[in-house]
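Worked example (supplementary).
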Amino acid sequence: MMDLFLQQLVNGLSLGALYALIAVGYTVVYGIVQLINFAHGEIFMVGAFGAYTTWVVIGRPTDLSPGEALGVVLPLMILGGVAVSVSVALLMERLAYRPLRGAPRLAPLITAIGISIALQEIVRLFFGRLPGFPDSRQNVAFPSVRGISGASTRIGEVLVPNSAIFTLVALALCTAFLWFFVNRTAIGRAMQATSQDPDTARLMGIDVDRVIVTAFGLGAVLAAVAGVAHGLRYNAIDFQMGFMAGMKAFTAAVLGGIGNINGAVVGGLVLGVAESMATTFIPGQFGGSAWKDVWAFAILILVLVFRPQGLLGAKVVDRA
Amino acid sequence: MTERRRFLALGISSLVIASLSLTACGTRASSAPGDAGAKKVVKIGVIAPLSGGLSSMGTGIQNSVDLAVKQANASNALAGWTIQIDAQDDQASPDVGKNAATKLAGDKDVVAVVGPLNSSVGQAIQPILDPSKIPLVSPANTNPTLTRGAEASTNPKRTYTSYFRTCTTDAIQGPFAAQYLLNAGIKKVATVHDKKAYGQGLVTEFTKAFTAGGGTIVAAETVNPDDKDFAAVIAKIKPTAPQALYYGGEHPVSSLLTKQMKDAGLKIPLMGGDGMYDPAYITNGGSATAGDLVTSVGAPAESLPSAQQFVSDYKAAGYSSGYSTYGLYAYDAANAIINALKVSLPTASDATSARAATVDALGKVNFQGASGNVSFDEFGDNRTRVLTVYKVENGAWVANTTDEVK
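After joint prediction of all chains, the assembly is encoded as:
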């Protein structure tokens, strides 16, 4: 029983880490412009496809030694994914959100959904038409990286897939990087100031447009890392992968307190663990995997009833 | 400023519209009108998933129907008429399927439809096509209730007289798998299904037959069709020590499930139904799929002389993707329709007025198709009921046992 508990804890944490990486993007953007960017799931998706494209561009290396795979190819793939995600996110901000900056809140929400559909269709219809690329209307097999794909590490009776270790390490590194960025750099402090009071921040000489672009960029970096982690975990990527992952990550962001970066990380981990624990430890007919989403959302509702601001609460100053 | 905003909004909306219409155009098969000088046009619709995880199977269906139509036009099977194919993407979703069916029902030239792939989509579009008396012939729906009503096994009643299928059903597939496992000496099985009509039907029928044959179901779990992470379910099943896992659902999920199951140290064969019988299962699941099993409808294409002609014609036609699991059945479904049209069209002035007569004629067709003899019983099920168990060996599906179920 203890082993099963530990196994499910590992499963839950690694799933939660994936949610958390995506959730940060929702939270950072919301903290600055109070916009739920529903196309963020697609930023995660294009990041995964960007990493795949990088692998094709560098000549589809296979059968590498673990050193080459982990030291050269994987970092290149991550960088490629980040580059694609960030460019798409910045383009999206410029075309779909900036023109609507003064508009009622519903307008950018609708364009977000439009952008989300457009990005899915672009990948579905055009990615596979590039010469030498696989048909993107189906699952695309993600390149396997020696030392991570399909390998696992045994700790006692618990089997930890190496892809889960990668995801957790990536989350730890990204969280540290974010903390440093937000608290120790000028632009990071400008972000905090803008999230507290954009008008005063502008009066103090902060370039609010630049701050918003940075927020979109930051979220995209983490989403791309999540895209690579997803590919390594499941060995397949597809044009629809952003939808469900985005929904779950958004839930995680709300659970932790939308607008709060630490909250997004905590919310993601809690959601992942709740899902995997509910599968095993809720007895009778309400247990089992059929109900896991029900329990995940039940936890969300409970938290929102007793702590409407989420687990850690948002750092957004309430602007009535 | 407002000018620019309007321009942007226009740009984005046209992007979306363009991408949607592209999908529609991109999937329309071109059947050249050729010498349609004085010929009247009749259309056979196709509803299948042409994008998404199951598109390899859907495209195989579309191409096989296209092949049957091209051959019929070339041999002038229907004097005075040209057959065209109108393929619609249902994205394996009941809602999208409904839209496709509504669109086809509204086209006065459409006389019959081949499809869909998923039983859940079949359920959704039966009531849309039936009032227009458009026959729907599915090459792949295996859920028993589609032909025999809600109480399929105890009190069969035909719900829609316009619905036929060329494949066999889960009422046969599930028990066939159960028998195979019992014969192999396997007594403890865990079941998982994806809560869709197809997967649930398979597991229900499998469970009945397996327990009746003296086996035990040690764990019964479900997953969501869009889930990707099954670690939690696997960790729960593992302590029950099953000797095999029976999965009701399709290959996008089961290829992930088998991989994660074996990575987690649960090294038992995964067995499923025809929704898993696709090369993509092995491509996506990799080496983890070795030894996994499926039941699939009919006999292996390479073992049937009638099918070999189809296989070589299909190759010669030069389609960009394979005929997949249901190609044979889609080809036979299209030919069943064409055979019925030979009866119904000569007395009809246009395609719409031939619909009801085509339904009647379909009930009476009896011909030697690519998959074997094709004729429908009083429920619309194919009378030929042959099944095969395939096993993954050296990275390919290899036929293991073929049997006719009486």
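Two points are worth noting when inspecting this output. The first strand of chain A starts at residue 140 and ends at 141. The two ends of chain A are 50 Å apart (CA to CA).
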